[in-house]
Amino acid sequence: MRERAELLETLRRAADPRLVVLGGLPVEPTAVTLVSSSFDPLTLGHVGLVEAAALEGDLVLLVYAARTLPKEGDPVPPLLAEADRLEVVQRFCATRSGLAAALCSHGLLAEQAEAARGRFPGARLTLAMGSDKALQLFDPRWYEDRDAELLRLVASADIRFAVRAGDRGRVEATLSSPENVRFGSAFHEVRLEPSVAAISARQVRELARRGEPFEHLVPPEAMPAIRLALTGV
User: What is the pTM of this model?
Assistant: First the structure.
């Protein structure tokens, strides 16, 4: 755990995007999918996306960013400490083939794709995400030159997204708008059960802190860490 903390600090100081797979890989993959999140906590929404992504290639990386993006609105304390989140993700990946946990120095998905291209130069690259993150890709606030970054991204990676409740109209409008239509061919919808696609880490955090049932929304690997965070035992 100390080595992992030191690695995170090293990545936070990295000038260029860098991706590190925790535990290493037995062979180099030919197709890599990134599922990026803060994993606070890991939910069945993440699991559904990961399982759908696993059908696309031979390696799915659950990516945690050493430098996270700022959240809109008032900051809310995390439910799980960083070390606990990473422990849960690694435990989840350890029992399933084709999955691995990874750390990235940068938080923007375009930067994570750049880091993945450097780590796996010959592999086909896919980014899998919820529709909220897909919409965030088009937000010019995150870029010095949005169109240049998006063109670079879609030239080397496909985007798979699951539509979350209430997002379909926004997604369709965004992809079909004149300024975005040239990027649309790289975006493909992943069909998840609506009840799974609707699960968010925010929802789990709120239910857990209110003392309401949340166990049906997270995988078993997440439960010990959540219970410890809530009760101290």
Answer: 0.93
